[in-house]
Amino acid sequence: MYIVTGGAGFIGSVLVWKLNRMGIGDVWIVDSLRRGDKWRNLAGLAFAELIQPGEFLETIRREGGLPAGAEALVHLGACSSTVEADADYLLENNFRYSRTVAEAALARGTRLIVASSAAVYGGGERGYGDGAGNLGSLRPLNMYGYSKLLFDRWAVASGSERRLASLRFFNVYGPNEYHKGDMASMVFRSYRGVAGGGPMTLFRSHRPDFADGEQKRDFVYVKDVVEVIWWLLENPGANGIMNVGSGEEETWNQLGRALFAAVGREPDLRYADMPANIRDRYQYRTRADIRRLRAAGCPVNFRPLAEGVRDYVANHLSRSNPWVDNDPARSEGPT
Predict the structure, then answer these.
(1) 121, 128, 144, 191: which one is catalytic?
(2) Which of 56, 84, 145, 179 could form a Cys-Cys staple with 30, CB 3.0–4.6 A?
């Protein structure tokens, strides 16, 4: 039995899809569906249980650890909003809850994989090196990043870092992010307008060393991310704090050109001022240092940005049923 917290969310539901494709249906999903359309991420997937995060916590406390038979816990559940202003909520939800479920998994000797974030690196002035050595020097630009950094610091201080994989995800995009609102990728948020003949609007640069749209990101396709997680599930000796990104940096303009190419149009890129409330907290460049992931033996090849965007558009965004599910014709299709 596998437990996936945040299993109805973006990366979590695609991971459940991957588990299903590997013949695994005995999956506990820990998540809250609330009033939105997140439930649609699960409609085509097989799983055994769907329980609330609070109920899962009570189960842990009642049983003195994870339920018997849990082979692995992949803890992806968190508030992922980089503009969330309630610091106490983020501390409780992203740090204390994560620590509790991690302790429960480690006490059982259960394979443990935890989601972290590239937001811990702040503006990148101190580089993007992962591992335990630079935790004290990192300065996140938002409370979300700080809540993730706190977990990594706890893992190292408690000695748990050697028995778990904490994955710092970079800019993940792809199917099943449809419920994320402003936190969804620019590919998703721009697709409908671009496919309908409109322009794509990107943030104007507010730094003289970056031209408009030339801010850089490490974009990584969600299907490649879950391949990394699957490899880690199959290789429980690969542990530590590791970046998960393509290892490449590409500009928002390149992303825009990839989207226009995927819908068969010439690029029409325009620029708007960045909102004042995020200008001082905006990352102008990210690039994952994935040498630690490679040194662990992970063989996953991250597809180029244009290829990932093409798959996302052709096999998901352009379809009436865009979610990944157990129908291979709809989940994959021709590329």
Answers:
(1) 144
(2) 56
